[in-house]
Amino acid sequence: MTEDWQAGGFGLYVHWPFCEAKCPYCDFNSHVVKHIDQTRWANALAAEVLRVSSQTPGRLLRSIFFGGGTPSLMLPETVATILNAAQTHWTWANDIEITLEANPNSVEANRFRGFAEAGINRVSLGIQSLRDNDLRRLGRLHSAKEAQRAFDIAQNTFGRVSFDLIYARQDQTLDDWKIELSEALAMAGDHLSLYQLTVEHGTAFWDRQNAGKLRGLPGEDLAADMYDLTQDLCGAAGMPAYEVSNHAAPGSESRHNLIYWNYGDYAGVGPGAHGRLTLGGQKYANSAWLQPGAWLKSVETGSGDEINSKLSVKDQASEYLMMGLRVTDGIDTARLHKMCDNLSLDTTVDRLLELGLMFRSQDRIGVTQQGRLVLNAVIAELLPD
Amino acid sequence: MTPLNRIRNFSIVAHIDHGKSTLADRLIQSTNTVAERDMQAQLLDSMDIERERGITIKANTVRIDYTANDGLDYVLNLIDTPGHVDFAYEVSRSMRAVEGSLLVVDASQGVEAQTLANVYTAMEADHEIVPVLNKVDLPAAEPERIAEQIEDVIGIDASDACLISAKTGIGIPDVLEAIVKRLPPPHSGDPDAPLKAMLVDSWYDAYLGVVVLVRIMDGTLKKGDNIKMMQTDAKYSVDRIGVFRPQMENVQELGPGEIGFITAQIKQVRDTKVGDTITHEKKGATEALPGFQPSQPVVFCGLFPVDSAQFEDLREAIEKLALNDASFSYEMETSAALGFGFRCGFLGLLHLEVIRDRVEREYNIDLITTAPSVIYHIYQRDGTKHELHNPADMPDPSTIDHLEEPRIKATILVPDEYLGDVLKLCQDRRGIQLDLTYAGARAMVVYDLPLNEVVFDFYDRLKSVTKGYASFDYSMEGYREDNLVKMSILVNDEPVDALSTMVHRDRAEMRGRAMVEKLKDLIPRHMFKIPIQAAIGGKVIARETLSAMRKDVTAKCYGGDASRKKKLLEKQKAGKKKMRQFGKVDIPQEAFISALKMDN
Ligand SMILES: Nc1nc2c(ncn2[C@@H]2O[C@H](COP(=O)(O)OP(=O)(O)O)[C@@H](O)[C@H]2O)c(=O)[nH]1
Ligand SMILES: C[S@@+](CC[C@H](N)C(=O)[O-])C[C@H]1O[C@@H](n2cnc3c(N)ncnc32)[C@H](O)[C@@H]1O
Ligand code: SF4
Ligand SMILES: [Mg+2]
User: Fold this and answer.
1) pLDDT-derived band of residue B35, with 50, 70 and 90 as boundaries?
2) Ligand nearest to the CA of B106
3) Is domain B196-280 in CATH 2.40.30.10, yes or no?
4) What pTM was computed for the model?
């Protein structure tokens, strides 16, 4: 019998928690340190991969993702050690996607060759903006020109290259964004992540905003207009959204991210990493120690996990709704009901259909472009009590 | 039993914050009535809400033993009266139980509206009055000027006012001597005459049940006596009798002129009526003390639980609070939109807020409070007359001949520079100016105002336009006809009963516009657009549209975000539960009151 997670597939996430500098908007688990003992980290991450893979031996691995932090600060040898470990108990898919998040600095670009040789076949570059002034306001260490150069090197080195932009920035007008996005689409490969700036709790931007010093951010209406414009321009350029903030030429979607959104299983390795693993028919959620030092010590004495808990069927249904409705395809209703059979969403979905926020087909429900803009409200209506 | 000439019964009258409670603490402390270590600031204000707001809601009392400079021992009974207009009747009853008052005026502030209102009540009760100028320790204190002001405005001799600082203790011995020398002992009282005791106050005590505060006028009251309440004819047997120091201390008996408490297996505070006369069941008095008046709620509103499953909890809370507060009334109410709740009557808006706060805090029930309303008199074409407590019950206008609304006489004292704003505020609230005089640099204006214009946010507005420098007091003045209509509010084309109000026809458009604009801000955007309208009968007089929510989406959500995001969405869902659904629209709890607040 097939298990539920197989509908989404299986992947590995590896978290590298270090950065050159902390960006003022960033709430990822990232730390700036003077010295990193790469050998020790390589061994610890590899040990975790071995530990988790020995619990799920023989699984078909579709994707590996090095996220951060800034994984382009890893040495290619570190990457190689971890990839090696991931081959011990798992079977790699023939077309396995192995992505690494990279910052578009010259130093890191010089390592691209080494990463490719270690096995990386896709990079996601954090370009964030094509405007120097905005890069400075975002606290980024690279210039637009450096980013362009890093992108060119990446194009010549890896089979697939994507990059990230942050928009709805301070003082950005609809026209500014139209021009910048057009430039981005002109240079892009087959994948783009376009995130609206979110002022996250615990960041420097958050404090600045509370002090009334983060001015010029767009209001709800302008932000919504920017989103709509983004859908139009990307659609016209042959890179429609396949998720709230992700665009790709059909067939070039990030396989890794689709595992999350299609609610497959994934192993999470590294400080603060999360995983979802089905063991003996039960889905578990685990999260690792957040602080790099605590995580390292914990791994060296057995396991990096801080929490590991069973997910109830209701939790699973909630997570599937939350993740699955982010993708334009929506979710498989039969799968949802199999997961949790006493869910009655029909009247709510009817209401949301009437408002033009959702669609329903034979076997799927999903969210329209209009609905995607108010997805949190839509999901809040649908979540089981 | 204490001889009459060794008893002094008194109250302290003051505007809020002029130092009444501090002085009371000081008197208690300086006569060693409470051991130093038991002293906590503001001994007599006990309820949390009273402490927080610095007001006294229930009359408190304390008996102080004092050896005067003449070498004789005296018993001083202080009754601390409520300091707010909502409780004017309670104040006047407490005043009837004593013979004198200390008039406390803040020497840095001078006479204020409540000073006047309270001192007039004291004068009506034939009190001897000793002026006390407090806060002389403050650099801004001007005792000479304030003494003159007291003479000018109130018309009593203030040449030998006590100059004190209740805070530092300066002048406290003088106050004690003045109480003995200048206030009269109880006028008469025969210990052998038939018992006449005034029921000054009563409240519920968790251990003792209902406790009744009494002032003996004639006769003697002992433990075990069989007594009768003359108004209600209820009969009880006294099982405990005592005085407050301020803790309860049992005594054998209370004689003429004395103040103390009794308990008598009385089931609920409702069975006791403030102002009633207590006498013996056998050989009792035949005539009650004059001046009894049952207390009358003047402001009504609906209280509904936000979570309808909490209705039974709300019932229990209200019943318990009512046991301890005879002045608030309640009856069950059902509303199409809000489900089951209670229509409650209060002495005033402060009283309403106090009860509402206590339900929310002490019983943990989130409440929806509907628009407060006063009692209208409806005269119908068929010659009948009804009272209207709830705009939702308004009969078909074609059956109505005319409507009358309650009016008040408001006295406002305000520094000259804010007078213009105050006059404008009163005018905007349909006031009729009755008087305008000056007391030094302060103007005293007297207005005839409709109670419904005041009940809600008048006092807040007054404070804000005068930066807190105005003081305000009012008394009820009877009913008068006016052109009043019921204004309904429709949200997404459905009428929301809880937002219906009675308004003057000429002000309906303005009020309607203000309300729909407010509601547009108070109701969160939904996934669809929502028309909000004000209407009289079928006619829409104001309209706004709340546009649909445009953006509410998390930009990034990857593997690690699943758990965190779930928490956020669950919070969002829980937030909706704090709102009530009207048709398809969620209206937050605070909207019902906030929508009525006017910005001008
Ligand atoms: N400086 C000074 N402050 C005082 C004096 N008496 C009272 N206060 C302060 O005035 C405020 C109001 O006093 P309170 O006794 O609560 O006033 P009440 O509202 O009349 O009971 C409190 O902050 C007191 O500490 C005084 O003699 N001097
Ligand atoms: C793990 S992060 C960054 C990876 C890499 N260290 C970098 O900065 O390029 C992945 C992406 O999330 C996006 N991102 C991070 N914080 C954001 C925020 N507060 N609002 C919107 N997007 C954000 C950025 O586009 C970033 O490239
Ligand atoms: S945005 Fe990227 S580089 Fe900046 S702090 Fe976050 S993870 Fe590090
Ligand atoms: Mg007080």
Assistant:
1) low
2) 1
3) yes
4) 0.69
